[in-house]
Amino acid sequence: xxLLRLITLAAILSGGLAGTPSAIAETRLATVAGGCFWCVxxxxxxxRGVREVVSGYTGGRVDNPTYKxxxxxxxxHYEAVQIQYDPDRISYAELxxxxxxxxxxxxxxxxxxxxxxxxxxxxxxxNAEEKAIAEQALADAxxxxxxxxxxxxxxxxxxxxxxxxxxxxxxxxxxxxxxxGPKRQDNAYKFYRQGCGRDARVRALWGDAxxxxxx
Length: 215
Prior knowledge:
Elements: H1 3-13, E1 28-34, H2 37-44, E2 50-58, H3 67-72, E3 78-85, H4 92-100, E4 110-111, E5 114-115, E6 121-125, H5 128-145, E7 153-155, E8 159-161, E9 175-178, E10 181-184, H6 185-196, H7 198-206
Parallel strand pairs: 6-7
Antiparallel strand pairs: 1-3, 1-6, 2-3, 2-8, 4-5, 9-10
Helix pairs in contact: 4-5
């Protein structure tokens, strides 16, 4: 037995290589736009089976967009998130069921207090299977609400990660200046979320079916 094989075997037996079941478990991506990506990221990082959520931009015409460009409008990009999940623990259909009940899918002009093209909702799909599941999620939402649902299903486009300061924004501990004065970033996020009316509107639409409102 070669030295390399001996080292590899020892690492596997000790759980130190990516040969262990937990390390080689399949991971998939779901890409959605639900208004402010800080809020969507914060919501889905709480979900069992979700490994990571990354905030970013997708669906537009500009390469390597910045937050300033996207929020100003004209790039066509959505504020979006990529949800990395374990399909053995949660399905794509379950994620989309929760997503639809965490937004206002009847609003074509943005979400809550955030208005404009970058805050529109959408589900981005990569194949026919995802498209069928997404369309069923929209149909279920229409049936549940008894209203027109304007959230589209779009073909996946290149996803650009947002700037570092947007990632895990809701967890930040630095002091920032808000309209209510200096606040720690995590508290400023809560102040923004409440002031924007996100949870109040979601509860009004979905009632007890809303998975994240008030969390």
